[in-house]
Design brief:
The chain is of the alpha+beta class. About 50% of the residues lie in helices and about 25% in strands.
Length: about 70
């Protein structure tokens, strides 16, 4: 079998109950949180800053992912 090696790091913090919470994942030096922030910013810029449009778009993407998860 093929083995794939990647540089993977997690940014974590402790919540008020003392539990660790992952707040970001870095893969090969790329931050998932920053990447998503940039995608959200671009979408908002292209759609007049409309948060409701972003929310609707994210709901549609979530529905598509859930529908495809069973395949």
């Amino acid at each position: 079998s093929d083995v794939c090696s990647s540089d993977l790091a997690f940014r974590v913090r402790t919540d008020t109950a003392g539990q660790l919470i992952a707040t970001d994942i870095h893969v090969e030096g790329v931050s998932l949180a920053i990447n998503l922030r940039d995608e959200f910013s671009a979408y908002l810029h292209q759609n007049g800053g409309s948060i409701p449009k972003l929310s609707t778009h994210l709901a549609a993407l979530t529905a598509t992912l859930r529908a495809n998860a069973g395949q």
